[in-house]
Predict the structure.
Amino acid sequence: MDFVVDLDAAAAEIRRRIPQWTASGLEPGAIIWRDAAAPWPPPPQTDRASVVDPDSVGLRFSAADAGVAEIVLYRGGRADLTVIPNTRDREPTVSTADISTPETFGALLGAAIGTLGGSH
């Protein structure tokens, strides 16, 4: 797969937002990497140094009053966002976006937070 997005720069977009998310009550999980060089299915990795050929980066975060969201960016430029609300009156949603720069991924992270009802 072609590299369209620098996943390390995308991970930096995640890391720079974590303190603000945490301060506003969100619970971000660890940054997760997938290694294309690992045997299938590749296990999720939290240590970037152990990933030889990064294929994706992402994380899961939750808001106690709103639910859980997971966002994954693949090196080919596709991002998947899954939102699982914690109320029965809202269905889980899955959406995709084409991402060409770490900055557009950062904007998607902001939108993902908005889907949980926050202004984080």
Q: What stands out?
A: The chain has two helices and six strands. The mean pLDDT is 89. Residues 3 and 75 are 5 Å apart (CA to CA). Strands lie at 26-28, 32-35, 54-63, 67-74, 78-85, 93-98.
